[in-house]
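Forwarding these from the shared drive since the link keeps breaking.
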Amino acid sequence: MPSSRQTVLKWFVLRSNRARAVAALLLAGIASLAQDINPLTTSEPSPAVRFRDLFPPAMRDTGFLLMTWQWLGLIGIAVACWLASRLGRILMSLVLRARSRVMGQPTALATAKQLKRASGWLTAAGVALESLPYVALPTWLEGPMVGVLRIFGILSLIMLAWAIWEAASEHLAQKVSGEKRAENLFLPFFGKVVRSLIVIAGVLAIVASFGYNVGALLAGLGLGGLVIALAAKDSVENVFGSLTIIFDMPFAIGDWIKIGTVEGMVQEINLRSTRIRTGGDSLITLPNSTLIKASVENMGARRFLGIKITAKVALDTPKERILSFCEVVRKSLESNEAIRPDGQFVRATGLSDTGIEVTVQFNLAGTGYSDELRERENVTLIILEAAEETQIHLAGSLPVTSMPGRPVEAPGSALPQVS
């Protein structure tokens, strides 16, 4: 007969076994319930399977390279991309109309076409990338197609960003209209900088789309930056020279300047160099580093153009006729609107073996070479008419000089002599 101690032990063993069984059942039930509730643990069919099940079994047989339902899916994606492209163009057209109403300035036709085209292409690329998993293409075909679509989408995004900057540049150009320095220096320079940044960002995005670590690549470039900077010391100096031009603004595009022995019109300002078109129509490229140390004479910054003409009359001309001649010329200059009222000078200033020198000096309101040619002709005719009116005989020729320099408006034009 078992003792009371053995009976108690058997009872505890039976109770513990039952407790383990109940606990196991509870855990199994909780796990089953969690699997039914949590969508991450459910065995949902993939998008490709759901799309395939929409077609009858006869279309699930393998045809030429792909199944029939896959070919139909690709055709559907092509149609969806076309519709998405049209939708993107329409939405961009609405945005451009709203912009024109708000800013009161229509977008240029070429820029508007580029914006619409880029928007359509970008929308189509996005629809294609989102729809392609539903077709479940083979790996040998899906990988290249996804890569091409990503590159196409990034290029479309670059094109869109480029067009947006062009539209912004048009708005800025209207705002700074009349500001010569901003219009001819800041906008062209920063336009090139922004376009370069857009292209660089696009290249990095394409590299990242192939799975490369762009951050590690940039870090590697940072480590080698010191070596590159030392090797490209002149290039760094040229960049600082371009920044000097931007912030100091010694000249702008379209100005006639003189730097050392180089003289001509500024045609282009880049990060590395400045291009100058000379009077002989040759193109000279100057490194921007030379502009930091060189002295720049800017003819385009002049407030007016001073011209001096020396006429000679016969030595036996009476004093009264000379004074009358000077007075007629002076009144004609005062009535000319192209000549500034200040700085006019008509006097008999010297004697020579060939005659009495009469100096006609005046300042033009315009500083262009065409202005100088026109007024030089007008003043020469005025001198001839005054000589005829006062019955004075002109001796020798009419030396004409410009003071202190000469600008030019058209490359290749003849240049006047500098006094």
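-- next protein --
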Amino acid sequence: MFNERGALAADDIPALDDCNTGRIRVLIVDDDPAFRSLLGEVSRSLGYETVEAENGRQAMRLLSGLQPELIVLDIFMPDQDGIETLQQLRNRSPRPRVIAMSGAYSGRFLTMAKALGADATLLKPFSIDDFVAVLQDVCSKR
């Protein structure tokens, strides 16, 4: 999956069939900078425009000017967690699609995230292939 410099190898990233990804803006929200950066790199390699935020509070500040079509949202973060962010997103129009992700408590809060409007969930740790598959699925439903 990665080349000798540690970068993603282009041949190993599945192509998106159903989406015009050049028009899709993705906001990636996670307090782990390395993980956030990795998801951003994968998303950009697929043609998405990406912006990153380190917590829900920063994400909500970025939303009005950014207007992303998709948010990849971690559940457990300092300052403002993903559950609180999802509650705030429920009243937004247009509401971006949301992929919620978490590994804390064996992913128990992903059920709550789904009930609050997350379009899809990912249990950490997950593979890049799983991430790409969920992006494809959520994108195809827009």
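The longest strand covers residues 97-102. The two ends are 28 Å apart (CA to CA).

- D.
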